[in-house]
Structures are given as structure tokens and as C-alpha cells.
Amino acid sequence: MRKPLLLLALAAAAPVAAQQNFDSVQIRTVPLSKSLAMLMGAGGNMAVSYGADATFLVDDEFAPLTPKIAAAIAALTKNPTRYVLNTHFHGDHSGGNENFGTAGAVIVAHENVRRRMSVEQFSKVFNRTTPAAPMIALPIVTFTDQVSLYQNGESISAFHVNNAHTDGDAIVWFRTSNVIHMGDTYFKGRYPFIDVESGGSIDGIVNAVDRVLAGIDNDTKVIPGHGDLSTKAELAEYRKVMAAARDRVKKLIADGKSLDQAVAAKPLAEYDATWGSGFIKPDLFIKLIYASYGK
């Protein structure tokens, strides 16, 4: 039997809320088509497909935000959320899984998402341990290459991109509405976090963007993992910066530069003021790229 999401979320929120206060967070709804919207809160951007069939949600942010997310969805449709697809395993994209799963949603993700969520994860970069997720929060439908769903008059394709932000990234293409959700393979106008410890790499980021650019047109609406709704032109600019970062750090490595020397060289100096203004600062970004090559 379905349990109300509000009650479930309040029960699950206590330990997380003690670490971060979500009281002031508002969920903003950005309409994209007659049956699709982007939701923005305090974590990775979400997408919700709604209509006569069922409700399909891409990512679900942090557990304490579930009541606000559910309220935003309820303003669009009375149908319950039947499916939740995680673009990867990080908690700002999958933290609401337990609440939505307990309420009856089917959690879908790449098989590496389930594998990583099933065990404790430790990040050296942030010196943070994430415990294994409860069984109800784990994806129960997994895929290795791609999976398709058809509902609300929408053709939805989710496909895996190798070793980009993590080793379990999925990009979700709403073909009918001409909208694509890129998860954290795309941080709009900012240096991205590349989770090298979890299989991410700068080469994978560039390859993922290339694959998307080859399949979309100038009218495609691009949902980044973080940042406002974007366009193909803005994604192409991101690709330019990512390729420059890749090539310049690779050259420093080929020239025998140490990590400290590579950071001190400031190979992306002309981009740092703008692209380094997010939570991934220029020095850390160079270190992550350097680490992408096993250095």
C-alpha cells in the first residue's frame, strides 16, 4: 500500500536535516512542454514527465526536500510518481529514493548506480563517507547501455555514457518534447566535479558532450545537472572549455610536470574567473583532470 510521501519524508529527514537546513529551499518549476517540466531546488536539477499515464521523475535531490518536490509535482498532475530514474548515485540526485521508493515508485538507474549505492562510499576529495543506502532506495530496474520508456505521449530514452562524471552516468532524452537531461556530465558555465574515485574522467566528460551534441538540434532544451536551463550553443561552449582543459593538462603531464607544477601553471587562466566561480575551484579542477590520467 502506498504511504503518503510527506510522512515518509519527515521521518527520513531528521539525520540529514541536522547537517543541512533545507527550510528555506523552494522548488522552482520551469515548464518545458505540455507534459514536461524542469524542477530546481537544492541539488541536481530534476525533470518530470506527467500526463494521463503516470508520472516519471528524473532525480530526486535530498530526502528532506521530498515533501516540497511532491508538492511541485502535485501542482502539475494528480497522478503519483510511478518511476524515478537516477542520472548517477550522488546524494543530491538520489537522496529522495527511499521516500519515493517506499511510496511505490520504481527506481531505475545504470547498474553501477545500484552497485555503488549498495555499499559505503568514501570520497577523499571531500573527506566524506556516505553509508550504504537502504534496500528500498536502491534501483530495482537497472541497465547497462540504454533503456526506453513510453508514456504521456513521450518517447523517453536513457543511455549510459562511459566514465564521465562517474562510472554510472545516464543521459535522459525526451525525444517528443526535444529536451535532454545531462545529469552532472554538464555543469552550465562552471567547472564540473569529476568524481575520479568513482570512475569519472575528463575524457569521458568530453565524449559524453560530443555524443549529445551530435544528436540534438538548435531547438533542443538542455537540462544541466547544475545551473539554469541551457541550449546547444551553451553546451558547445562548455565542450570547448572541457577540451581545452583536457588538452592542456595532458600536455603538462607529457612534459613531466608534477601535480603541484600543473596547478601552478594555471593552464585555464583565461577561464578561471567565470568558470571557476562555482564550488569546483580552478586548482581543484586541474587536480581532478590530472587524476583522470592516473597521476
Q: How is this structure best described in words?
A:
The structure is a single chain. The chain is an alpha/beta fold and 295 residues long. It has a single domain, classed as 4-Layer Sandwich (Metallo-beta-lactamase, Chain A), CATH 3.60.15.10. It is 34% helix and 22% strand. Helix 6 packs antiparallel against helix 7. The longest helix is centred in the C-terminal third of the chain and has 23 residues, at 232-254. It is globular. The chain starts with a helix and ends with a helix. Residues 1-18 have low confidence and may be disordered.
Number of strands: 14
The pLDDT mean sits at 93
The CATH architecture comes to 4-Layer Sandwich
Summed up, the domain count is 1
Please give the order of strands in the largest beta sheet. 1-2-3-4-5-6-9
* Element pattern in H and E: HEEEEHEHHEHEEEEEEEHEHHHH
Number of helices: 10
- Relevant CATH superfamily: Ribonuclease Z/Hydroxyacylglutathione hydrolase-like
Reported for the largest beta sheet, the result is: 7 strands, mixed
Helix content: 25-40%
Brief synopsis:
The protein is α/β, with parallel strands linked by helices. The chain contains 10 helices and 14 strands.
What keyword list fits this structure?
10 helices, single chain, seven-stranded mixed sheet, Metallo-beta-lactamase, Chain A, globular, alpha/beta, 295 residues, disordered N terminus
